[in-house]
Amino acid sequence: MLKDKYVILGVTGSIAAYKAAALASALKKLRCDVQVIMTKNAQNFIHPVTFETLTGRKCLTDTFDRNFSFEVEHISVAKQADLALIAPASANVIGKLAGGIADDMLTTTLLACTCRKLISPAMNTAMYENPALQNNLNTLRSYGYEIIEPASGHLACGDTGRGKMPEPEVLLSYILKEIACKKDLSGKKVLVTAGPTQEAIDPVRVITNHSTGRMGYALARAAMLRGADVTLVSGPVSLAPPPFVTVVPVRSADDMFRAVTAVSDQQDIIIKAAAVADYTPVFVSGEKVKKKDGDMNIPLKRTEDILKYLGEHRREGQFLCGFSMETEHMIENSQKKLFSKHVDMIAANNLKTAGAGFGTDTNVVTLITRDNIEELPIMTKDETAHVILDRILHM
């Protein structure tokens, strides 16, 4: 995902420096070229050899180190960088950068960088909340730095409060957001629905389906990585919310209908990947569910067809994509949905096809438009999501 990307990872004097090693390892696994630059104080917490082992590159610590090829090292590193992140960032280094001070390898390199720059402060709560530190952070924001807010919790000093450096996976998500994908959806608003809905039969039981939400979540994540402003309307799932995505949790089909229609007019692209229940129980007040020969006799009513409603009430220029899961006559049934629901694309799959369907990490999708039928090979759901977005952008 980060092949051919070059990231500067600055490490300063903080006990949280050990987390930077895990981040460097995660970046390397994504085929990223990682250049670690350590301050003198950082070396009191973690040894440069650790980073050199993880990244396969010499860890830079000294502006005047002669053991490298003849070039102005901090300038050449700065020119190559796609992104620079200081994690952990001490109050001292934050103050230096805010004041334009360049007195070591890290600060001279950062001042020479023209790429995107991120700062992850890590320190005692009182230090973090000190007005001088906050002023320095605001100054860096005005210079174009993005400040990653610290987490709250028990600190190494024994205090409890804000100041913890976020976990490596959180920092990685910031890096991926910035440089993992081209930003061809920048300025676009994308709405994705995902997961199942649940219709209550009684206080204990529900009618639902086997949807896990993985395809919808992959679509939301892919759109975010490509620069879109993403809203994800999600039924009950066990998945972690995608970072940098507005998640609207819902439970019933009616909840999802109201959540989607409340914001649909604002969207440029809507992708309905949720498996919404077709029917919902309806009861007269006080009426109990009847049982007959062991089966439940449940009065039902058809739920609102969200995709059809969107097709009939779409605004000009809006793109609508629906999903169709079939067990037979997949093409014919999906084409009928395409026209009857007035949408631009149907992503169809067959529940009986190996690698497709609910609960898998892969999908086998056929993209159907008014002019074309394209059968995609088996891919991961993340890969499938990017192909679907590619096709939407080129229609």
Characterise this structure.
- The protein is of the alpha/beta class.
- It folds into 2 domains: 6-179, 3-Layer(aba) Sandwich (Rossmann fold), CATH 3.40.50.1950; 189-393, Rossmann fold, CATH 3.40.50.10300.
- Helices cover 33% and strands 24% of the residues.
- It has 13 helices and 23 strands.
- The protein has helices at 17-29, 48-55, 73-80, 91-99, 105-112, 125-129, 131-142, 168-179, 214-225, 253-263, 306-312, 330-340, 381-393; strands at 6-11, 33-38, 83-89, 116-121, 146-147, 151-154, 160-164, 189-194, 199-200, 206-207, 229-234, 246-249, 269-272, 279-281, 290-292, 295-297, 300-302, 319-326, 345-350, 362-363, 366-368, 373-375, 379-380.
- It has an 8-stranded mixed sheet with strand order 12-11-8-13-18-19-21-22, sandwiched between helices.
- The radius of gyration is 26 Å and the shape is elongated.
- The two termini are 25 Å apart.
In short:
The protein has helices spanning 17-29, 48-55, 73-80, 91-99, 105-112, 125-129, 131-142, 168-179, 214-225, 253-263, 306-312, 330-340, 381-393, and strands spanning 6-11, 33-38, 83-89, 116-121, 146-147, 151-154, 160-164, 189-194, 199-200, 206-207, 229-234, 246-249, 269-272, 279-281, 290-292, 295-297, 300-302, 319-326, 345-350, 362-363, 366-368, 373-375, 379-380.
SSE layout and pairing:
Elements: E1 6-11, H1 17-29, E2 33-38, H2 48-55, H3 73-80, E3 83-89, H4 91-99, H5 105-112, E4 116-121, H6 125-129, H7 131-142, E5 146-147, E6 151-154, E7 160-164, H8 168-179, E8 189-194, E9 199-200, E10 206-207, H9 214-225, E11 229-234, E12 246-249, H10 253-263, E13 269-272, E14 279-281, E15 290-292, E16 295-297, E17 300-302, H11 306-312, E18 319-326, H12 330-340, E19 345-350, E20 362-363, E21 366-368, E22 373-375, E23 379-380, H13 381-393
Parallel strand pairs: 1-2, 1-3, 3-4, 4-5, 8-11, 8-13, 11-12, 13-18, 18-19
Antiparallel strand pairs: 6-7, 9-10, 14-17, 15-16, 19-21, 20-23, 21-22
